[in-house]
Design a protein that fits this description.
This protein is an alpha+beta fold and about 130 residues long. The protein has helices at about 55-75, 80-105, and strands at about 1-5, 10-15, 20-25, 30-40, 45-50, 110-115, 120-125. The protein has two helices and seven strands. Helix 1 (about 55-75) runs antiparallel to helix 2 (about 80-105).
């Protein structure tokens, strides 16, 4: 996937991005984690997603359902059992995706680097 930076206009591929970075910050009594990557030329922050305690719980529930389904496939469970377990996985995937979308919608603005009073760099949220 090719991206053109909104700020410096450099074109780069998502595969060329070194790392997905994480920044955790307090928000309305919760700890929210921003997952982001940087433009390799100008270091503009691109949001990849968000997580919090609830989204991690939903992801864990999904993983358990996927493991149960995989075990059922290995033991040659009936078609009815497989269908039921597969539907459970689909429901949990949709629930997690909807919650992550909700988290993302809470932060439509941009996260930017800025210098703190002590001279170090910090990340700040700028509302649109």
């Amino acid at each position: 996937m090719t991206i053109i930076c909104d700020f410096c206009k450099k074109e780069f591929s998502l595969q060329s991005v070194d790392d997905i970075n994480f920044f955790t910050f307090p928000w309305k009594g919760k700890e929210i984690t921003l997952h982001y990557f940087l433009c390799p030329k100008c270091n503009k922050i691109y949001k990849a997603g968000f997580s919090d305690e609830h989204s991690r719980m939903l992801a864990s529930d999904l993983k358990v359902a996927e493991i149960r389904y995989a075990k059922a496939v290995k033991r040659n469970a009936t078609e009815k059992q497989l269908s039921s377990l597969f539907n459970l996985v689909k429901v949990k995937r949709k629930k997690l995706a909807a919650y992550k979308q909700k988290l993302g919608n809470m932060f439509p603005g941009e996260f930017v680097f800025s210098t703190l009073q002590d001279g170090q760099m910090g990340i700040f949220y700028q509302k649109q």
